[in-house]
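step: validate -> pass
step: tokenize input -> pass
step: predict -> running
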Amino acid sequence: AAGNGTYYGFASTVSSSMLLDFVLVSTSNFGATWTIISNTSFQLPSSLVVSQNGAGLFQAVYTNQQQIVVSSNSGQSWAAAYNLTTSDNSVELAMSASGQYLAGVVIYGQPTTMAISDNYGAAGSWRDVSGLIPAALTQLNGMTMNAQGQYIAVCSSITTTSLAVSFDYGITFRVVTASARVQLFATSLSGHMLAGTVFDESSQCQDVWLSQNYGLTWNVTLQSAGSLCIGFTAGSGKI
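step: predict -> pass
step: emit ->
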């Protein structure tokens, strides 16, 4: 996750009980050196997003109760904000540039489980939007949000109808008929450009697809990108 020129991530450590723990680290020189910025140990964190000014960090922790945990002081202290699910599935987060709008979705969750906050992820600010996702989409496995938080897209590579979008901060969602089962999203700051991958049965590889109209239509831009493609990042439209 990136914010104001600083990049954040998790580094693994082995605890005294021989369990694999993670600590929060940051770099401001493109990964040449890393600094531990939080002494808190996290077990199997599944997602991390950070506001552009670096003031707020938001994390989904992989636990039996899948809590979304929020820090408003750059990772020095954390507070549980929302219990998203009780399943073993991981949680994916998306956040607006300012950090005001935050969304969490349970990956491959059955039934669909998704929540949105409009107040920096604070406890009590979350609303369950699971029932707003069109029934044609099941087992969501990707999500993205534009810089303003107004545009949100969710996808499923399981169902024929693979994409649903919201243009009103997650108040309503509508199905978009994609030309392929697109997954693993990234979006430009405005949200008009989306990138995703589609599994090519013939080559058994991932193809990269792009949309320049909020996911309404898609075109393949790179074929046989590889057998594994774990994600995208995007900014002003450069993927």
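step: describe -> The two ends are 15 Å apart (CA to CA).
step: cleanup -> pass
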